[in-house]
UniProtKB/TrEMBL annotation:
Similarity-based family: Belongs to the glycosyl hydrolase 10 (cellulase F) family.
Name of the protein in question: Beta-xylanase
Top-level taxonomic group: Bacteria
InterPro entries cross-referenced by the UniProt entry: GH, GH10, GH10_dom, TAT_signal
Organism name: Qipengyuania profundimaris
UniProt keyword list: Carbohydrate metabolism, Glycosidase, Hydrolase, Polysaccharide degradation, Signal, Xylan degradation
């Protein structure tokens, strides 16, 4: 028998997937309900909060968060100290990995929503808005293995369409009325081909564009008034210029085909893998980046900052100097992005505390000296860093 959270495909499609949002133990845990001493948080963290400052511009400031059942030593809803900080600074959260196919779809016939439900329950209890990430991460290395090796049978187009359609319907049905903004498709560019990437789904359906378009059309049927986002990691560094061009071609094709995309999610994992002597921070191509943003907004698309952090590989070990340069780079980036105030929606960090940030374990971004990447607004000791001040000042001036 399936548990409350591990349901068959038939149950999900029949609408039984939309079960009450409770913890894995059958009720809301202390971590989910947020029973930490919130009075201490009111004085521990700077005021106004980053979310309060973002709200002046009509947007949320938020963060990725995880669910780690049985563990309280992660950037997750089970960690009271971390959720204390999230509640103090954020108005929105987004699942880090808990909505991706490899988590919610362990095999073709089963949906496991347990970890995503933990996040949804915590967000609801604590009055947080919730974004969806992601309905389709269109890269083979992030597909569950069963999907890479799936037998699409004698009618591969119909079978691939069925898999994508039922997946998106199951997820959006479960969180109907809770999540209204989704990263529908994530990272669909093949950088060797400068074109959308091939997957088992695209080979079955005939092209990557067919898969991408289907995902957005199904999402629109499910969310007539929702915000449907294409999300990718292009950024303002000169090395990303071809990537930006690829994303523009993808978006232009979607618009021509009538694909219902509403916004571009700019992950904003901005990086300093080398230092520009003229600025003392990482090289960036502001003019070209603005041209890219102008073209995106010229299509009528909104912008979101969906996964902000800073890769500091080229910066010195000295923490005060490193933090100062990270703050400087952050402020330059936010000043540019907030120049697009009329087009920019929510801003989310990809974690708020250094030791829980994915960059500690992402090899190209790791430091050669073995020190922590200091890429988030708060240190591993939960102390606000100059980056936090830089974001706050940019939001204040923009408002």
């Amino acid at each position: 028998m399936p548990s409350d959270f591990q349901v068959s495909r038939r149950q999900a499609l029949a609408g039984l997937a939309a079960l009450p949002l409770v913890s894995c133990t059958g009720g809301l845990s202390d971590a989910a309900t947020g029973t930490m001493d919130t009075a201490s948080a009111a004085t521990r963290y700077p005021k106004p909060s980053l979310n309060a400052l973002a709200q002046r511009g009509g947007r949320y400031f938020g963060s990725a968060i995880a669910s780690t059942p049985g563990r309280t030593d992660a950037g997750s809803v089970q960690n009271p100290r971390y959720t204390d900080l999230i509640k103090a600074e954020c108005g929105m959260v987004v699942p880090e990995n808990e909505m991706k196919w490899q988590t919610v779809r362990p095999d073709p016939d089963t949906f496991d929503f347990s970890r995503m439900d933990d996040i949804a329950a915590w967000a609801r209890t604590n009055g947080m808005a919730l974004r969806g990430h992601t309905l389709l991460w269109h890269r083979p290395q992030w597909f569950p293995e069963w999907l890479n090796n799936y037998d699409y049978g004698p009618n591969p187009v119909a079978e691939a369409e069925r898999l994508v359609t039922e997946h998106i319907r199951a997820v959006t049905d479960r969180y109907r009325g809770v999540i209204t903004s989704y990263d529908v498709v994530n990272e669909a560019i093949d950088h060797e081909r400068n074109a959308p990437i091939e997957t088992s789904l695209s080979r079955a359906m005939g092209s990557p564009e067919a898969v991408i378009d289907l995902a957005f059309h199904v999402a629109r049927e499910q969310l007539p008034n929702g915000q449907l986002v294409y999300n990718d990691y292009m950024s303002w560094e000169p090395a990303h210029r071809e990537h930006c061009d690829d994303v523009l071609r993808l978006l232009e094709g979607m618009m021509k085909r009538g694909t219902p995309v509403d916004a571009l999610g700019i992950q904003s994992h901005i990086e300093m893998f080398e230092i520009d002597p003229a600025t003392g921070v990482g090289p960036y191509a502001e003019r070209e980046w603005r041209r890219f943003l102008d073209e995106v907004t010229g299509m009528g698309l909104r912008l979101l900052i969906t996964e902000f952090d800073v890769k500091d590989k080229a910066l010195p070990a000295d923490i005060p100097e490193r933090d100062r340069k990270i703050a400087d780079y952050t402020r330059r980036y936010f000043d540019v992005m907030l120049d697009y105030d009329a087009h920019l929606d929510d801003i989310l960090a990809w974690g708020m505390v250094d030791k829980f940030n994915w960059l500690q374990y992402f090899d190209p971004a790791e430091r050669t000296d073995g020190l922590e990447v200091r890429g988030t607004p708060y240190s591993s000791d939960y102390e606000a860093k100059p980056m936090r001040t830089a974001i706050a000042q940019a939001l204040i001036e923009a408002a």
